[in-house]
Amino acid sequence: YYSASNQPVYTFYAVIMIIIFILALPLNASVLHLFIFKLKFWKSNSNNVFLFNLVLADILLLFCLPVKAHNFLHGERRSADDKVCKAMLFMLFLNRGASIAFLTVTSIDRYFNVVHPGRKNLLRALKKSPQISIIIWLLLLPLTIPTMLKNFECCNSHKSEDGEQEDAVIKDVVDSLREVVFFTQIIIPFIILVYCTVHIVNRLRKKTIGDKTKLKRAVFLVTSVMVVFSICFLPCTIARMVLLIIRVSHGSERYEDIAAMVFDGLMTFSYMDCLLDPLVYCFCSTKFKALYLSNYFPFLVKGDTVLSESSHSAGNVPPPTRSTVI
């Protein structure tokens, strides 16, 4: 059940993961370096703390890609070693969950800032303390429970197997728990993002005072969060649902192999999120972009204006969301 049904296709998946890893690792590492040594995020506003944790989650997730690529190149959907497989799933559940969580929290914060400016809310009170990020990481740990249970089989949820009835019941419970975690960590944040995005776009469009260029850019950026989230996460979620339906309904082995292959491919594509997050969330601010270029690509910076702007913004970068500055 963990063997790749079509080796050339899985080799292609492995190449895609290697390319994502090569491109995303230095990009995320440079942003991480900027926030630690240049911005000193712990002394800055809480939005920078959220962004730091978002990039940290992405860069930790990236370290799983070489292992996944190695498995695919050797004709395996997952490692034959159960310990390695469960460790990979632990990293995937924790860091992808953290990435989505910090994205969602940042979007909620931007929602209150744009739609309800000045209104007191719990998030605004909590975000003043950097410990909120630690709390979010700790709250995500229970989501990794299905990957640590003895009866859990990697890549094999609700797969019919011969065995004792009692073991089969326990396995079904564990598998169901894992699938609930998989779907809820994507569907619930997606609903929240849709709500926040729609209200933010409506608020920005009704705004009549201010720079129209900035307002148009803000609408474009806040809309792109939904586009990227939809492209990266929704397709693999739908593919997972189709795969489970085929398994539960005891469909033919051929259809199940095709569904599993499509799911693995869309999961591979979803790792593009690690590459897109820094580009969208970090560079949505012209000030952050200027600071990044002045530190890592100074030959691209023209004149002293951008340099002075970037140095001025080092202590307080605008919120790292696609809604940018308004």
UniProtKB/TrEMBL annotation:
GO terms for molecular function: G protein-coupled receptor activity. Keywords: G-protein coupled receptor, Membrane, Receptor, Transducer, Transmembrane, Transmembrane helix. The chain crosses the membrane at residues 12-37, 49-69, 89-112, 132-149, 180-198, 219-246. Its main location: membrane. Residues 27-281 form the G-protein coupled receptors family 1 profile domain. It is found in: Membrane. PROSITE patterns: G_PROTEIN_RECEP_F1_1, G_PROTEIN_RECEP_F1_2. Pfam families: 7tm_1. It is a multi-pass membrane protein. GO terms for cellular component: membrane. PANTHER family: 12-(S)-HYDROXY-5,8,10,14-EICOSATETRAENOIC ACID RECEPTOR (PTHR46048:SF11), HYDROXYCARBOXYLIC ACID RECEPTOR 2 (PTHR46048). Belongs to the G-protein coupled receptor 1 family. This is G-protein coupled receptors family 1 profile domain-containing protein. It comes from Myripristis murdjan. The lineage of its organism: Eukaryota, Metazoa, Chordata, Craniata, Vertebrata. The gene is LOC115356220.
